[in-house]
Amino acid sequence: MAAQFHAPIPELYVSYESAQKLKLEAAELVSWDLTPRQICDLELLMNGGFNPLKGFLGQEDYDSVVETMRLADGTLWPMPITLDISEDFAAKVETGQDIALRDQEGVILAILSISDKWVPNKAREAEKVFAADDLAHPAVNYLHHVAGPVYLGGAITGIQQPVHYDFRARRDTPNEMRAYFRKLGWKRIVAFQTRNPLHRAHQELTFRAAKEAQANLLIHPVVGMTKPGDVDHFTRVRCYEAVLDKYPAATTTMSLLNLAMRMAGPREAVWHGLIRANHGCTHFIVGRDHAGPGKNSNGEDFYGPYDAQELFKKHQDEIGLEMVDFKHMVYVQEKAQYYPANEVLEGDTVLDISGTELRRRLREGLEIPEWFSFPEVVKELRRTSPPRSKQGFTVFFTGLSGSGKSTIANALMVKLMEMGGRPVTLLDGDVVRKHLSSELGFSKEHRDINIRRIGYVASEITKNGGIAICAPIAPYTATRRSVREMVESFGAFVEVHVATSLEECERRDRKGLYKLAREGKIKEFTGISDPYEAPTAAELVVDTEGTEVDYCAQQVLLKLESMGLIAA
User: Fold this and answer.
1) Among 80, 96, 97, 79, which residue's Cα sits nearest to residue 32?
2) What is the pTM of this model?
3) Secondary structure, 3-state, 191-216
4) CA angle 353-357-362, nearest 5°?
5) N or C: which end of the chain has fewer CB within 10 A?
6) Is 258 one of the catalytic residues?
7) Phi and psi at residue 236, in whole multiples of 5°?
8) Annotated active-site residue in 95, 196, 235, 384
9) Residue 196 a catalytic site member
10) Segment 356-364 mean pLDDT
11) Of 157, 173, 194, 282, which residue is the catalytic one?
């Protein structure tokens, strides 16, 4: 088995000479600029990580994968790998045509020979692949709000790998991994998939798994795209490198996988297995709720804790990997070491820190005991996530025109400046329009672009440890959500709904805008001829009717204090 296992697998790259020639020819082709997620997918298509796929799925394969987890020819493949594009671009290309695929710097990575072009049923895709058409699932939200409406399928001719400037020595293609195993004479290799920093329990778990399978260990973390809100991969890799010293060097290695995860639970586990088999592994650790995205809109888990393990077991012969059970490891105080939870004796004191509890301790600068994690890992995590009262954050006011957003935002800004400690920036509607969005009008589309620009600037301020205060109308739920996601990858996002009634706003009408809207002189005016989608889960709701501005700003400060964003 092992000999066949480590033989090279097919890649989609052409030879160096052909690539140079194709590059010149491809310069004339219509080209599509790939999104970060598409670049991850393309890399694993080209280097054989997604073997047996020869390109982005055509319509027949796509339908078959969505419905049955198999390609049209019956081969097991659980995840639709599709090239989603905009309607505008779709209008410019036809089946039978070749297009160049470029990275975000404009470098040509591959040529796609279009075999299919179609409009997918995304609700069906969500329902079948992610088991729910629910926007609380990050991949379903991506499918509906980020991905383009048209799909292209077709074979890929690989010209060059995407460029990575970070951790280059740690990135290996499937064939590089296979050659490495061949060279070291490793026959049995257990892979550990992770998107989180490793703590002592993980080390114990992987250690045991390798021992039970009598196999070598490959720590194979994902550094492409994981779940919004995860620790960034730079920090994680530094943590992994700190932990690697704790493993015996002769039996363990680490490699980074540039995969864009979908958090699709059971299907994702099978997908991860196929990818690891392509990398030359023989065993794979499947965890409880493997690649689960958390809670759905009703506050329940999307997938059952063992669904992924059951689906994997059912298909493991076809995947070509043996599943290793993920043991939940706990620390037994009396014995001062880790044991699988099911081996703990009655009367033993079990210590455990959940991911949520760990984040709370980091956020509040509290102690993280050495039995839980390695000091080197904690040091790295503290560097990138200081206590909350030292991190940047964004306060995002939303409400109707004339509700009092700007007034409260100004008062809040002054109060925060009085406290000192972090730079405060007010991204006021009029100021932003003058400096960032002077070319935009007030159509629905332009107002959306304006809010996204505000969100982008707020996320940069937050990332650099400052406080951003925004006060646009921001009437649409989807736009507010995408701003929240932009900001939350760097710090806290506090949405404040200024819930002043339409009647009151109209009564105040300082600028005479409501009057003009009623007369039909302003089109698409929020609250009159265009809807305001009120937030349902804002961190704070304030109403300015009969309330002092100072009191409203004070409420926001108390909220920030209770969230630990400003020191009490």
Assistant:
1) 97
2) 0.77
3) EEEECCCCCHHHHHHHHHHHHHCCCE
4) 110
5) C
6) no
7) -60, -45
8) 196
9) yes
10) 81
11) 194
